[in-house]
Specification:
mainly alpha, Growth Hormone, Chain: A, 16 helices, about 80% helix
């Protein structure tokens, strides 16, 4: 594998996720302040606007990268991310906040292009290891992003956005000088796009049952993960009495474990066990962790939470890059960008569905009093039902993964991939 280009891709995704993480703890306070006066519903729409734009534009950017090359699409998207954050930081009206989030969401669809670049420069045997770099960047981004946002907000509530904008611009400069293009004139992606049947071929490839199963498993897994992340902080607040500082350290612990596995171990594990097996194991571990979370009590406390968090991190670290690798192997070389873009759209949709389901499950038990962190009580029953619903969704994904492994696992191990389909 070409290490230098992969390092640039890693940095690109990491900075994207740092920017995404910076927004999480800061945007509610920023938008609802006296300058903008946003309602809780409007703040929710601000978050949703990013995911919706990412949902729409991930396959678009992926497909454009097939036609015009990975490098220009990544460069333009980084400049768009920088612009989106600068608009947020200098905004004077609520409308400008929405514009900034929409631009950032459109640009945030570049994850699919980054994955397609990895598919270009890795062999099928090393594909999961390359995709693991994306997962490691995700994990580290979620570790550092919220922490950076919280620290920088002490110098001004808009400072984190300005910092993220400057970081994205610096990343664009690095990419311009350090990242070579992989889509040459005779590259299968460009040949496919030039034929004028790019979208038609993409739709045909998505009808491939293998891709359909992989995307269904991925969607259900991300929905379950999103329910967990939307509820976990509330659980630790009400059940264990943890504040934002303690929650941040727990999430940092989970992120570090996930990043270590996806960045350093996944390639060797795939070579030994195969993607399908790792998906199954990862889904089982994650489902089990969701089942036992509601059983944690103040008496078991931190040790139990860290143990469960470690199991959750391992489960996600095994399944997520393996699913991305399976999707890549199920697509032809000419459809890498489009198919991996569709995978990111599936993830974006799941990240919108998951928190919505969590809100429905806990709404009757929690009365929100504002963004100052003050809540009325949450019942133990609502805690259990929320996590167990996520576990049930994850278990369904596990059952589908079992069927997928039985039906198609031998094709992957025998090398009967998309090119021969």
């Amino acid at each position: 594998m070409k290490r230098s280009p992969l390092l640039v891709i890693f940095i690109t995704v990491f900075i994207d996720l740092v920017g995404f993480g910076i927004v999480i703890p800061v945007l509610p306070f920023y938008a609802e302040g006296t300058k903008f006066g946003a309602t809780p519903s409007q703040v929710g729409l601000l978050f949703a606007s990013y995911s919706v734009m990412q949902l729409i534009f991930s396959p678009v950017l992926g497909r454009l990268s097939d036609k015009h090359g990975r490098r220009p699409i990544l460069l333009i998207s980084l400049l768009g991310t920088s612009l989106g954050f600068l608009i947020l930081g200098f905004a004077t009206t609520l409308t400008l906040l929405f514009i900034g989030r929409i631009i950032d969401g459109i640009s945030g669809g570049n994850i699919s292009t980054a994955q397609a670049y990895i598919a270009d420069v890795t062999t099928k045997e090393n594909r999961a290891k390359g995709m693991g770099l994306i997962g490691a960047a995700f994990g580290l981004g979620f570790v550092f992003g919220p922490a950076i946002g919280g620290v920088l907000s002490r110098w001004g509530i808009n400072v984190p956005f300005l910092f993220a904008g400057g970081l994205a611009f610096a990343n664009a400069i690095l990419l311009y000088f350090a990242l070579p293009e992989t889509v040459t004139k005779d590259h299968p992606a460009r040949v496919s796009a030039a034929s004028g049947r790019g979208w038609q071929q993409l739709i045909m490839s998505l009808r491939n049952p293998r891709l359909g199963f992989v995307m269904t498993i991925y969607f259900l897994s991300v929905v379950a993960f999103s329910i967990m992340t939307a509820t976990f902080s509330l659980f630790m607040m009400f059940r264990l009495g943890y504040d934002a500082f303690h929650n941040g350290w727990v999430f940092a612990f989970v992120g570090i474990i996930s990043a270590a596995i996806q960045g350093g171990m996944i390639g060797r594990l795939v070579k030994k066990f195969g993607e399908s097996f790792l998906v199954i194991v990862g889904l089982v571990l994650f489902a089990a962790s969701l089942v036992v979370i509601p059983l944690v009590t103040p008496a078991t406390g931190l040790l139990a939470i860290l143990t469960i968090g470690a199991v959750t991190a391992i489960g996600q670290a095994l399944s997520a890059p393996s699913l991305s690798s399976l999707a890549s192997k199920s697509a032809s070389a000419g459809d890498q960008g489009g198919v991996l873009g569709a995978m990111q759209s599936v993830a974006s949709l799941a990240r919108a569905v998951g928190p919505s389901l969590a809100a429905i499950l806990i709404y009757s038990a929690v009365a929100h009093r504002g963004f100052n962190g003050q809540y009325q009580k949450m019942s133990d029953a609502s805690i259990a039902h929320t996590f167990w619903a996520a576990a049930a969704i994850q278990f369904v994904a596990f059952l589908i993964a079992l069927y997928f492994a039985r039906a198609y696992g031998k094709q992957y191990s025998a090398g009967e991939l998309a090119e021969s389909a």
